Structure to design on (439 residues):
């Protein structure tokens, strides 16, 4: 009889091997072993926020058994690995908001962390440049906001001082100078967080795409696409581009919904990199959630110019040729996107045109550095911003968290400056987890 053939655990394994049912039976054997929770906390998402959270949780609660699940084979490959590399100082954000508070704290702590880990960075500074009188009035408002946010070293500079800082930025009338803004390789920083976590006994599993999260009473079961099952007491999700879907898989709210916007960069040719010393940004238009086209030096010596902002054809749509039918269908049926798109149709069409026809971007650049010519530019990298949006078309401006699912905490919105703020965000998430999970 079958029961006799597979009696005992060793008999079951032998039977599985003989009948070529190893995968299925190992899954059952795994469940039999894991009748009580294996991990104390499972963190879904191996980007800079997930890894920073894992590190911080491990440091504060060294006795907890913690695992990080990342769907890609490598860590920090999406938003963390595709951003411009700027260490922001918190100038733009609404005073009192999480972004304002965590960015300023996170930036200073980032420099300290990089010094401790010998991670190179460049505190190259930043100019936010007004090129006409309307922008000058907005610049003054922005400066006051930066002062309220206690951004260190902030100063207003005139045309002469602009040229002392950026000799080729001859189009500026007035600017905000942020000497402490810098650049770093954020993916390297994120991977260093992961190294810290592993060194202190944490577990990171890559290639684990989460398909289901189910609270079964005494434990939470996290199932992955390759049939791996993780059993845990608590779950923290930091899923970035998939934060809404992961929350829904866990029984949480789908809203806010993630809408992917691609930002495409150009690069200055090597013989024109001398035109830019530090970050040169425009005065942002408050009508739009993006900062506008800017010049950004990189740690590898290159200079990125951009980005634009176009609706992506996929959540991982780093080019026009990358299209995901499920992602497109969801966007097409999401009423919030239509409510945003209709009144901003002209802006959206203009951004798409700039993406296709590079000379259309030149006017945005020559406002600051008239010497830049089309022949000085080549197509560069692109990133996708996970923009959280509500059903009424409102963009979620601040960092947002969801604690509505028992035993779980979801990071629902963490766009820029999440990398800069990552150490501060991690501490906030750990504090919230301590309360939610009674750690």
């Amino acid at each position: 009889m079958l029961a006799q053939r597979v009696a005992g655990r060793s008999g079951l394994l032998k039977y599985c091997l003989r009948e070529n049912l190893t995968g299925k039976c190992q899954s059952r054997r795994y469940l039999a072993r894991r009748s009580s929770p294996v991990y104390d906390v499972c963190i879904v998402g191996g980007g800079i926020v997930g890894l920073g959270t894992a590190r911080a949780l491990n440091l504060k609660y060294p006795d907890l058994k913690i695992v990080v699940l990342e769907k890609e084979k490598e860590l920090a490959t999406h938003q963390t690995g595709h951003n411009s590399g700027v260490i922001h100082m918190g100038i733009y954000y609404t005073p009192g908001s999480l972004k304002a508070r965590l960015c300023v704290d996170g930036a200073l702590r980032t420099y300290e962390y990089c010094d401790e880990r010998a991670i190179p960075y460049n505190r190259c500074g930043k100019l936010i440049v007004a090129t006409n009188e309307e922008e000058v009035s907005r610049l003054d408002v922005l400066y006051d906001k930066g002062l309220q946010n206690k951004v260190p070293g902030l100063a207003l500079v005139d045309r002469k001082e602009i040229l002392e800082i950026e000799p080729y930025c001859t189009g500026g009338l007035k600017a905000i100078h942020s000497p402490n803004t810098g650049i770093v390789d954020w993916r390297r920083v994120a991977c260093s967080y992961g190294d810290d976590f592993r060194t202190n006994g944490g577990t990171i599993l890559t290639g684990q795409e989460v398909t289901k999260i189910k609270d079964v009473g005494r434990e939470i079961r996290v199932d992955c696409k390759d049939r791996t099952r993780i059993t845990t007491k608590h779950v923290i999700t930091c899923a970035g581009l998939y934060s809404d879907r992961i929350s829904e898989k866990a029984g949480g709210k789908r809203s806010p919904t993630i809408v992917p916007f691609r930002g495409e960069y150009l690069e200055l040719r090597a013989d024109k990199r001398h035109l830019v010393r530090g970050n040169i940004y425009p005065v942002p238009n408050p009508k739009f959630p993006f900062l506008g086209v800017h010049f950004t030096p990189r740690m590898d010596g290159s200079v990125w110019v951009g980005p634009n902002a176009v609706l992506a054809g996929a959540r991982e749509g780093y080019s026009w040729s990358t299209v995901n039918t499920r992602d497109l269908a969801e966007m097409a049926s999401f009423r919030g996107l239509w409510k945003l798109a209709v009144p901003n149709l002209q802006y959206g069409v203009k951004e798409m045109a700039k993406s296709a026809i590079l000379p259309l971007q030149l006017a945005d650049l020559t406002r600051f550095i008239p010497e830049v010519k089309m022949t000085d530019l080549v197509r560069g990298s692109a990133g996708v911003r996970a923009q959280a949006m509500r059903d009424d078309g409102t963009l979620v401006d601040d960092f947002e968290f969801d604690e509505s699912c028992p035993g779980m905490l979801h990071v629902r919105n963490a766009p820029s400056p999440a990398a800069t703020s990552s150490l501060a965000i991690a501490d906030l998430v750990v504090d919230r987890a301590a309360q939610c999970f009674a750690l």
